[in-house]
Amino acid sequence: MKKIGNGLKNFFKNLKNTLILMDKKKLLIIILIIIIIIIVILVLLLKPKTIKCEQTVEFDNITNKNTVEITYKGDTIKEVKTTFDYKTEDAKDVITQIKDSMQNLSKVYKNVTGVTFNQTKDKATEYQAVQTVDFKEISDEDLANIGIVRDYEQAKSNYEASGFTCK
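Predicted structure:
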């Protein structure tokens, strides 16, 4: 144990002597590089992460691909973005029915703070809408009504139990 202590003491003494002898310009550059490295590491560690969960269902010539993007930090969800993507080779009537159904769903969430619902694609054989839930704005009661939890691991588990594949 004494050898380790003496070794560390000598290391820091040598480091101190080296730094004293070093040109101030070089020392400043080294310090700036170290600060930049620390900032980059902190940004990477503190930046929220995103996971994507997908589910594709085919029924009667209709393909419904739902994609859920969960943005989280630690075990706390920050945002859930769900994309409902429908495609069919059938007549426009099918897409019209899907569109009407999704518009009714958007009316349900219209007055819920923290939830936005936008139509992003409306074509003869394709329809897409995006629902975004901002966890900073939504109340716990509204969140419970939607059926999403704030806990990342639990939400991911719930989506996977519902047939989504999360990556």
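Summary: The beta strands are 49-59, 62-73, 76-88, 115-122, 126-134, 165-166.
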